[in-house]
Amino acid sequence: MKLFHFVFLFSLSASLASATEITSSLQNLSSDNHKVQTEARNALKLEFADAEGSDYLAMEAEIIGQIDGGLPLENRLYLIRLLEWFGSSASVPTLAALLDDSDPKVQGSARRALASISGDEARIALEQALREASDSQAPALLDALAYRKESRSFGLIEESLESSNAHVVQAAAIALTKFGSADAIPALKKALQGAGVAKLEIARALLSIGADVETAKQIFVDSDNPAVRVLAFEDLMRQDSSAAKVALQSLLATDASVGRSQIIHSAIMRGDDSLRSLCLERLPSASLADKILIVTAIGEADLEQYEADILLELSQAGDAQLRERCIDALGNIGTDRSFDALFDAILAQPKSDVVLNALARLNAPSADIKAVESLRNARLPVADRIASMRVMELRNSPGALEQLNAIAADSSADSKLRESVFKTLESLGNFETIGIFFGVIQDGGALMRPAQRSLKRLSLNLRSPDALWAEFFKPAISEAASDDDRERYIEVLDGVNSRHALNYLKGNILDHDAPLRNASLKSLSRWSKADSILTWIDIANASPEDRDTAIKQIKRSVSSSSSSPLDRIDKLVKAIEKAPDADFKLQILDVLSNPPAGTGWVIDMKLPGLANDPDVAEKVAELLK
Amino acid sequence: MIKQNLTRRGFLKTGATLGAAIVGAPMILRAETLGLNGHVGPNSRVNLALIGFGKQIGSHVGVTGLHNVHPLYVCDVKSWALKSALNQMNSRGFKDVKGTPDYEDIINDPAVDAVMVVTPDHWHAAISLAAMRAGKDVYVEKPMTLTIAEGQAMVEAEKRYGNIVQVGSQQRSDATFRKAAEIVRNGWIGEVTHVHTWLGTFPEPVLQPEEPIPEGFNYDKWLGPTPWEPYFENRVKGDYGGGWRSFWEYGSKKNGDWGAHHFDIIQWALGRDHTGPVKFVPKGFEGEEYAYYEYADGIRVVRDHPDRKGYMIRFFGTEGEVCVSRNGEIESTPAELVGRPLSPSDTQLYRSTYHQANWIEGIKTRKPTICPAHVGHRTATICQLAGISERLARPLQWDPEAEQIIGDTEAAGWQDRARRAGYELPV
To answer: Which of A555, A595, A594, A584 has the alpha carbon at shortest distance from A572?
Structure first.
């Protein structure tokens, strides 16, 4: 120790020059300027964090020296925190003395610092404090020792189990739980006998660390805390399956048991076959609540061996919730055997997310084969072939796309079937499908309109606007035999959110003699994506007669949720910057008087950019208020 | 076999062990219709308590509109927030909701089945753990905890007690983020090489002169386990642009703010919910322009890199990329990936469409939620390690198996924080 002191003092004197940096930060802690105070705190933290060797020792010594120097409370506390973060055993004597400070805040800070500083000195100081502590002080000190997790404090913590104060006993039990050492079990078992209010905490500690079977059984029977009861059951499952089975049987026999839901779930998820069988045996006669629990757990645990049980339950289930749970479980564990039941479910509830999701996940390869074959089989009723497409669409069945494209392209196929195929291809289609739709549209006929609708939806789904424009729309429009034919493609151009498409429409609109002007205006008016806003501004600037339409459509686009709030407001601001006059600007800006949902934060972010525009400054200020 | 049914009132009245309560209890209602301690039946309502009526509660009160949810308590340490909470419940038709400034009242009431924790981050763990230890289910806002050790305690509790926990990473219940994650997970953009994500920054907090504590505000309790500091309003204010979020004492700054959302989606997409990164580097260290973290296989996640095409997250792969933001914004290269439907052999991620309802369903069926504690913990750990690295201004190495900072004993000490007396962490 003396050698240490010598070395310490020698190093300190040798490092006085480097301590100057934190000296000024220490002084600035008490500055009247709070910005300076803040910077001082940050500087101290970083400097102390980076210091090494003698520099570090010198800084620590300087900090220690300041703690009792008459600083304001918050600064004293901050210095103690610095020691908590970076202090060494050199801090311990000062901190130990502060455990008796007149201000409880200082006591607490010192305790936390000692909890964090490594080394025997800090531990010893806390242990000493615990020996001398009152009942009100002891829990925090026990927590501090548990925080350190040093086995040498163990015995002292165990002694606290014998306190007459329930809070101290509870704190000791929690501390021992944090240690997690089986060495604590005898002391905890002893404390459990005759424990009053602290019994729950002791039981919890025992079970968390590892109680024996008899203790776990007793706690399972006695406890009215669901969490502790679950813990006891899990313990029994790990140690003694027969004991767990007895516990489960008693629980299942009692409708209103503490922890019932959790325990049934645990038994199926983590129990052995005997526990699962116990639950499954009850399934036919179980209450609705139990059925739901059992079925859900089977699905979650992927217990494929119970597929037949779930199917049976589904066939008999009258309750909608139970049906849903069965269907969801079959999505996890079902096989080809479950396909018919799920398919019936989807016919009954075509929009149910649970059913759709289960059928999409079902491990039933034969379902896909059957679906594609059904579609291919021209001898089957059209209704059956249409029904098979539902499966394909949900499961993206292998071979489905080829078969669907073939029927879509076959002008001799049944028209009702073809129309259904078009709809299915809206989600499954590819670029070949796009070509097929163009062919149908070009041919005209009864299926032109359905093809147009599906073309638009598939285009939106494929999200390749520039490729779609370049490879399909542009050639089709330019090669069309007449303007009437061209209009067929222009009508659905809003499915292709391409700058090129927008420019094409703009060109037609600005040419007042263009035969396709009206069709282009209608198409652009349907455009819901925010990209159209800038096209409308260009049109309004060049064609005053179209400005009212432009204003109306810009407002519509800003209000439409088909583009993100960021995109819409961003385009709106750009539109205002390019707008022809003040009146136009104000008319567009007016849409934000009743801002569309979800745009508030973007408006706050983007609108200040317009504050310097005298045409709109006042309106902008009003909107940002 | 004797069936023993109890009313809730009867159970509470005896206050004794279940064994004693059974004898002589009237058989009144079937258990499956009651929300009893530890057993919520399918037709019973979930008795809910909401704790913390600050800035974020607006996202959660809607859960009381679900037909099988009944709010029993509201709680806040600010009397005016509590009054506002009661008014909100009244206006929703819940006239018998109790208000309390002390969450302990809720924990000790066996009638409460489930608790929503919408407090600042530094209170998340203690209240959640107290509820879990009482057998209640928990919805806790993100990030799940303030420290790594708190997260480990919550994971342990979830495992021990079987609670249904939902961490408020609600982007997982957004179809657009799920789609992006499925695109990545199914390898449709090839091997992921790196990710750019946007978090932004808070202004640095500046100490302010001490102000009188408003009447009706239990400031000491608001501070809870954190060190005492003189009160000024900006320290405690709920503000998306700063407030308590800017202080390391109560949160992990932007790491725990947007980071908790985006790091979570990145974890999900990469299939790393059971593990985490191995290296964290703060901005400015040896000239690094952006903070980043890396996984063991070299995937680097870079914070605030401008090359994101305006999206919140951009995944770069060897065969393409996918970018995603809120409000349905997603794009991919090749473009058709977004519209490509999944087949049964593809990885299909957990489907949830309403985050809070997913939790309520889990309470009744015991089906795990889309973001349980053991998942939320891994995400929160990233937030905390990024924060430690930032605070110490140096890189960290992390062992995600041992859950330990490697080779830096001092930094490892920051995996937990000592707590003020009276606010010890229950385990």
So the answer is: A555
A562 CA: distance to closest CA in chain B (Å): 8
pLDDT confidence band for A195 (50 / 70 / 90): confident
Tokens of A250: 């008693």
Q: What is the C-alpha separation between B36 and B48, in angstroms, rounded?
A: 13
Match 């057993």 to its residue by tokens: B39
Sign of the C-alpha dihedral computed for residues A162, A166, A171 and A177 taken in this order: positive
Classified as helix, coil or strand, B104 is helix
Quick one: chain A helix, strand, coil %, rounded to 5? 80, 0, 20
Nearest by CB: B342 against A319, A360, A363 = A360
Give the nearest partner residue to A463 out of B18, B326, B335, using CB atoms: B335
Q: How far is A129 from chain B (nearest CA, A)?
A: 14
CB contacts, 8 Å: B387 with chain A? none
Structure tokens at A468: 């779609």
- Beta strand pairing status for B279-281 and B313-317? unpaired
H helical segments located in A197-348: 199-209, 213-222, 226-239, 241-252, 260-270, 273-282, 288-300, 307-316, 320-333, 339-348
Polymer length of chain B:
427
Q: Give residue A564's pLDDT band: very low, low, confident or very high (50, 70, 90).
A: confident
Quote the minimal CA–CA distance from A510 to chain B in Å.
Answer: 31
Q: Between chains, do A140 and B424 touch, taking CB under 8 Å as contact?
A: yes
- The whole model's pTM is what? 0.89
Q: Closest Cα of chain B to A593: distance in Å?
A: 21
Is B141:B168 a contact under the CB 8 Å cutoff? yes
Are A261 and B421 an interchain contact pair (Cβ–Cβ within 8 Å)? no
Task: Give contacts of B419 with chain A, Cβ < 8 Å.
Answer: 112, 143
For the question of an ipTM over 0.85, the answer is yes
Asked if B11's CB is within 8 angstroms of A222's CB, the reply is no
Pairing of strands B238-239, B313-317: unpaired
Residue A89 pLDDT more than 90?
yes
Q: How many CB atoms lie within 10 A of CB B184?
A: 29
- pLDDT, averaged across chain A: 92
Which residues of A are less than 8 Å from B208 in CB distance? Answer: 34
Contact call for A174 and B42, based on CB within 8 A: no
| Helix, strand, coil percentages for chain B (3-state, nearest 5) | 35, 15, 45
- Least confidently predicted of A387-396, B8-17, B77-86: B8-17
| B35 DSSP β-pair partners | B40
> Band of the pLDDT at A17, cuts 50, 70, 90?
very low
A interface test, pick of B22, B34, B367 with most A CB neighbours within 10 Å: B367
- What sections of A68-119 are H helices per DSSP? 73-86, 92-98, 104-116
- Kindly determine whether residue B38 and residue A226, on different chains, have CB atoms separated by under 8 Å: yes
Among chain A residues, the shortest Cα distance to B16 is held by A224
Measured between beta carbons, the chain B residues lying within 8 angstroms of A105 are: 228
Report the residue from A178, A254, A396 with minimal CB separation from B342. Answer: A396
Residue B104 has pLDDT above 60, yes or no: yes
Which domains does chain B carry?
Answer: 41-169 (3.40.50.720), 170-354+375-427 (3.30.360.10)
Find out whether B140 and B165 touch, Cβ atoms under 8 Å: yes
A172 has pLDDT over 70 = yes
Instruction: Check whether A18 has a pLDDT greater than 50.
Output: no
